[in-house]
Amino acid sequence: MTIIAVTGATGQLGRLVIEKLKARAPAESLVALVRDPAKAADLGVEARAADYDKPETLAAALAGVDVLLLISSDAIGQRVSQHHNVIEAAKAASVKRIAYTSILRADDTPIGLGVEHRATEALIQESGLDYTLLRNGWYLENYAGAIAGALHAGAFAGSAGEGRISAALRAEYAEAAAVVLTSEDHAGKIYELGGDESFSMADLAAEVSRQTGRSLPYNDLPEADYAKVLESIGLPAPVAAMLAQSDVGVSKGGLLEEGRQLSSLIGHPTTPLAAFVAGVLKSL
């Protein structure tokens, strides 16, 4: 029996990956790697303590694991050292293949977040392990807050210009990971993953306007001005700056992916923007 482990398994993506894996593999073949196993009790699979910052926890956590999904850490600025710890432990534990959740076109993305993903990819490729790189685009869920904010403020704001965004639901990226982890012929593959239907921020504004009957324009702002807007709603300055820079990266094509590799992997179309917007509005 092939043993499959998932790091960060109690995170938003990790939980969905475990759920999708359980539909494709026996629960007893799955391992959730988490900082606090007690928080993983509801996952219905074995949970092992594993902390990116504590290498001594990782060797035991990976014992007997054949295939590992390394979900990228959310500790921006610390990711490379944390991921290095996991990769070294995977080598020591003789893990057969490692998959990693990277960023769309990590090798040349204009989005600043790509730096740490690019460095992690290099570590994996130099590790000697078989690997699969899952270069995920943005989650549609990233825009739920923007929709709620626009309904309150009367307009959308950003620095994305006319850049197009190939976003998909978090669950769809999770499903792709589950497919890759449970099937063969993915070693050495790099997948550029995004939604079938791209949209601009103006398109998003128009769709929300259509469904609500309100006129909600998209106001494109200089990067520094957008960062100030984000700070004004309570985001820490470094996070606001990162998000504003990411938007500028969108304006340069950083999140457009038209290869439809995601829907090809999961075997069905990704969720359209209109359906996502309808779901968000229903939840508000």
From TrEMBL:
In which organism is this protein found? Caulobacter segnis
Q: Which domain of life is it from?
A: Bacteria
By its UniProt entry, which Gene3D superfamilies does this protein fall under? Answer: NAD(P)-binding Rossmann-like Domain, UDP-galactose 4-epimerase, domain 1
Its protein name is SDR family NAD(P)-dependent oxidoreductase
Q: Where is the NAD(P)-binding domain?
A: 8-146
Q: Name one Pfam family in it.
A: NAD_binding_10
